[in-house]
Amino acid sequence: MKKLRELLCTNRWFAVVLLLEAAVLASLAASLFGAPYKLQLTPADFSNDYPQIAAVNEDRTALQIWNNSEDFTPPEDKAISFSTAGSAMRSGAYEVTVQYFSCQMPDAPTFNALHSAGSLSFASKGNPSAISADAVTLDDCHRTVTTRLWVGYGARMQDLTATLTYGEGQLYLYGITLTEQPIYRLTRLVIFVLLAAVLDLALLLLFACGDTNAPARRRKYAVPLILAGITVAACLPLFSNYLYFGHDLDYHLQRISAMAAELSYGQFPVRMTTDSLNGYGYANSLCYCELFLTLPALLYNAWLPLRTCYQVYIFAVTLSTAIIAYCSFGKITASRKLGLLGAALYTLSCYRLVCTYIRASVGEYTAITFLPLVLVGLYNIYTTEKPRFAQWAPMAFGMAALVQCHLLSCELIALLLVVFCLLRLRDTLRPARLLAWVKAALLAVALSAWYFFPFLISTHEINLMVNGPLIGKIQNQGTYLVQLFSPFGPGFSGADSGTNPDMTLSFGLPLVVGLLLVLYCLLRRESWHDRDTLHRMQAAFGFAVLATVLSIHVFPWDSFHNWLGRTVGKLIGLFQYPWRFLSLATVLLCLAVVLAVQLLKEKNVRLAKCVALSLVACTMLMTGVMQTQMLKGQKEAAYNTFRKMDPTPSTGVGEYLIDGTSAYETIWAQPKPGSDDLHLLSYEKRGGKAYLEVENDGEAADISVPIFNYGHYHAVDEATGEEYPLGTGENARITLNIPAGYTGTIMIAYQAPAYWRGFELVSALALLGSIAWGVSRRKKKQ
């Protein structure tokens, strides 16, 4: 306490900062109490400048808009809109519920989710930046829609305006309810405490005076500060109120929002996203592991904007990449400084930045995080006579992480590991080393069992499109040397045959320069005394060349299909793009460059430092150029929430649809009775379950429900609990046979098989056992 008092006396500005933080903290803590605020907007609250086509009905329950008057001429210079006068709102997060009716084509109603008669948006003229809310499309398929709205902290909102924009057809608005979410109050408080702690630590380390221990403290925190700096440099595009559009961004944002919904319904682990595809459901979670997306999904359930959740995820992945790369390269080189160099080269590598921002390939850039862990595991196994848990565990955890974030990346590195083991077959077959491989494989399988075995079972039981006969020819998607060795690349674009339409597919300036250094070391290989480092550099460079060769357009992938048959062709087609091998080439080339700098230190320490600094400078230059290209070449979007009725963003290319189904038909989400005597009274999805209310005045008849029958669905009478068998009808929709004379509500819900809990138990025990072993070993060392 005495030291703190002295520090504050010496640094009065820091005392002021602490007082300001305390004031904000007290305000946020006080806001935790009190009833949630609620605002109800009625049809009468909307102004009406178009009485020819719009009016509030007699009982004042609906604002009815329908341009069926021949005398009305729509304005040419502006949209037809109806706005509220403005309402006072507290700071916070709000759930917005809109009750409406939309029919874009009244003469031929379609109930199509892609059709809409209008939209709803929110704004504030007095404080426009304080409102965060996406415009809501009022589609024909639904009658109620929910969205989210945020009012910024400290904003004195007096003029929140709701604007109903009319397009064509019939549009009836019944009411809008805004309900504050108390959990956001706590979320906001926790975020402020964390940010204040980081700010205070940074201020103390960088600016505080009069602290005699400051130099030692700065040396102690040098590595964390550098890693944080690398992370911030890679994440500068995230510090924005928008997201830069990437190829797969919509798909992965949909995964996050869908997973968040299922977690809120109590489904854990998430196996089926029941709300996806307009309520039809999608087996994305079964086939494409979403373990690491739990973080952004939980943040979304804590009512942060979806954009912020995704930004936090990228930041966390980038920080993890820097830390793992530092530890891995540092372990292999036995040097903290070279570990930091490797972390900078790898975290800011061109292909990783392309995957993160241009492609938005969440699975692949997450997998890139764990590739150095596999390398250090490989290094440990082959440099230790009797590898113990600490030596082979990185391999197990690295491969398990790859399985659970991106199976394709796991398959790619497994291919290179097989080649490596064959080349060093004699060393691999040594009993102790072979046992280490077996243990690592068993632990990796155990850690992944909760996902991997249900995935295998499901893909065997369900005829998914990914299991179909379609085989892609991937060779024409290969890279060209002019692309690989371009220092910067063209920036944002697509991926196709040739080079002109392609995005950046380059090693980037630092690795091109580093490649020259590696070649120099190889040309002078006889002069290096550290033969072990030289051999490791040669191995890393050799496999980097192999991965690069596999990525270029001249490698005969298509010929392999013709020579080796359909099965091999199918496996090759799963890679989709040969340039995926650039992730392996990048990590191996980074390792080779770091080892080359280590060799250079042997001859001239000063020269090695200059080379390392030059590589860092090249890295920063390339990163700056790529981020500048993003400013010019990529679109931005707010993405506060995700609600798109087009099935394409939800399914990507539809690999996990049931074979033969049409994703497009999910734009219609109404049950279809199979008899005129079978009457549909209501149908809604609530809490991940479907509630079907019917009345059957005739004989037993089938009804088709808009849910894809992936299996493990159960239908029970809500009142009696009686279970009804399910069938599969047109477009793989669930069908129910309704008994004669039946009247009631049937609940349909997805329930994963109970025995899958056994796989989850295996993974939990493997993880807990590994942690317990690590803790016990640490205590023994102490």
Task: Let me know the largest β-sheet.
Answer: 7 strands, antiparallel
Number of helices: 25
Percent of residues in helices: 40-55%
Distance between the termini: 30 Å
User: Beta-sheet strand percentage?
Assistant: 15-25%
Give the low-pLDDT segments: none
Mean pLDDT: 91
Radius of gyration: 30 Å
Bulk shape: globular
Structural class, from helix and strand content? alpha+beta
How many runs of DSSP E, i.e. beta strands? 23
Outline the structure in words.
Helix 11 runs antiparallel to helix 12 and helix 22 (582-603) packs antiparallel against helix 23. The chain is built from 25 helices and 23 strands. The longest helix is centred in the middle third of the chain and has 31 residues, at 431-461. With 782 residues, the protein is an alpha+beta fold. The two termini are 30 Å apart. Strands 1, 2, 3, 6, 8, 10 and 12 form a 7-stranded antiparallel β-sheet that branches.
Question: Would you kindly provide a brief summary of this structure?
Answer:
The chain has 782 residues and is α+β, with helices and mostly antiparallel strands. It contains 25 helices and 23 strands.
Which key phrases capture this entry?
782 residues; seven-stranded antiparallel β-sheet; alpha+beta; 25 helices
Summarize the SSE layout with pairings.
Elements lengths: L1 H9 L1 H19 L7 E4 L12 E3 L6 E4 L13 E4 L3 E3 L2 E12 L12 E8 L7 E2 L3 E4 L4 E8 L5 E10 L3 E11 L2 H25 L6 H7 L1 H13 L8 E2 L4 H16 L19 H4 L6 H8 L4 H28 L2 H12 L2 H9 L3 H22 L5 H15 L3 H17 L1 H4 L2 H31 L19 H4 L24 H15 L7 H21 L5 H8 L1 H9 L7 H22 L1 H29 L2 E2 L9 H5 L20 E2 L4 E9 L2 E8 L4 E8 L4 E5 L5 E2 L1 E3 L4 E6 L4 E8 L5 H26 L1
Antiparallel strand pairs: 1-12, 2-3, 3-12, 4-11, 5-11, 6-10, 6-12, 7-9, 7-11, 8-10, 13-14, 15-18, 16-17, 17-23, 18-22, 19-20, 19-23, 21-22
Helix pairs in contact: 1-2, 2-3, 5-9, 5-10, 6-8, 8-9, 9-10, 9-12, 10-22, 11-12, 11-23, 12-13, 12-14, 13-16, 16-25, 18-22, 18-23, 19-22, 20-21, 22-23
